[in-house]
Amino acid sequence: MKFLQDQLEKVKPLFEPGGKLEKLYPLYEATDTFLFTPADETLAAPHIRDAREMKRTMITVLISMMPCVLFGIWKAGHQHNVVNQIANTGFVEDMIQGSLLVLPIIVVSYAVGGAWETLFAIVRKHEINEGFLVTGMLFPLTLPPTIPLWEVAVGISLGVVIGKEIFGGTGFNVLNPALTARAFVFFGTPKAMTGDGIWTSVLDNGQVIEGFTGATPLAVVAQSPDSTNIIQTLQNSDFGEGFTWMRIFLGDFGGSIGESSGPACLIGAAILIVSGVGSWRIMLSCVIGLAAGSYLMNAVGKSGDFIAFTQLSFHYHLVMGGFLFGAIFMATDPVSGTATNKGKWIYGFMIGLLVVLIRVANPAYPEGVMLAILFMNVMAPLIDHFVLQAHIKSRERYLKRFKPHD
């Protein structure tokens, strides 16, 4: 590593002001910062010592996502091998097949999105921010393993450019770039993102098991007739593929690459909370809001004929779809989320509540997590504004109360 560091120091003058490659300085700085600790020093006061900075924060988030990445790779490979009745497969074979399906999606996301990040950094003459390390990984985890790679490239392009760069880049974006990218793909190319057959890779000449369906638990609930016992429908092997609560929590069925495993998401949550990178207030308030919405819908649907979705209990809502993944990794984005502590409680609660309302009231879109977070991204600045104004007024009342008399 010392040799590599010396070589970087030798070519550094080429990228500095006046050098032949001055315009490409963001590329040099990104490489140097990624490999080594920056040598920059703060010469003037104030001096603040803190072990956590942008690079360490982004790396911590990436580490917290690794359980979801590894599970997603295994799941994609396992589903492929089982559905296509490929014999003599085990964990290693599942991981190899899963890697062939998932890694190209991640590579395209990083390559195309990184190219846009670099282009804007060169044009604006600023450093390449480490935040894209997280965006480039989050986006693939929200996609099915069967999505065409060109759609990945288009999605991440729109997510980076429209979701972040047009607002001024990292730190100025109103919307979560990864969710913005997924929204473009979902609504722009719905065939690749909706339906029963998209979640599992099926060979053209494969011997697909009889009766195979790629329906997710949310799709089963959304398609259930009114006034039916939704829990029995889920658990009935003829209709719901045997979706017990525990199976949904474990996530060993078709779905987005990294969203379905509850244990993997919770491991990530623990890493984010212990490290102080992720807001536990937002995570907890999302769950509280989901519970409030679930019990409200349960009460509304008790009288007369009811939509089957209204009877889905809170603990099923909690593990279905991408709720845990969204609440842990998406809603806690420090840029697009709220900054004040009280605001985080309101922000998270409304996300959880909106997830249930969208799932129940919109049968064409049974997920709800993506739209709920994006909507609250837009509302986050307003929430913080009202929280701050309330705090200022409270301070003014306090000062007036204890102001000494003349």
Q: Topology of this protein?
A:
Blueprint: H1 2-15, H2 25-35, H3 54-83, H4 91-124, H5 132-141, H6 149-161, H7 177-188, H8 217-222, H9 230-235, H10 245-250, H11 262-275, H12 280-300, H13 314-319, H14 323-330, H15 341-361, H16 369-401
Helix pairs in contact: 3-4, 3-5, 3-11, 4-5, 4-6, 5-7, 6-7, 7-16, 11-14, 12-15, 15-16
Gist?
The chain is mainly α.
Describe what this molecule looks like in 3D.
This protein has helices at residues 2-15, 25-35, 54-83, 91-124, 132-141, 149-161, 177-188, 217-222, 230-235, 245-250, 262-275, 280-300, 314-319, 323-330, 341-361, 369-401. The chain is mainly α. The chain folds into two domains: 54-192; 217-253 and 279-393, no CATH class. Helix 5 packs parallel to helix 7 (177-188), helix 11 (262-275) packs parallel to helix 14 and helix 15 packs antiparallel against helix 16. The model has no long low-confidence stretch (mean pLDDT 83).
Percentage of residues in DSSP E strands: under 5%
Helix proportion range: 55-70%
Radius of gyration of CA atoms, rounded to a whole number: 24 Å
Number of strands: 0
How far do the termini sit from each other? 70 Å
- Low-confidence stretches at least 5 residues in length (pLDDT < 50)? none
Listing every helix as H and every strand as E from the N terminus to the C terminus, the arrangement reads HHHHHHHHHHHHHHHH
Give the class from helix and strand content and strand pairing.
Answer: mainly alpha
Helix count?
Answer: 16
- How is the main sheet built? none
Number of domains: 2
Mean pLDDT: 83
Basic shape: globular
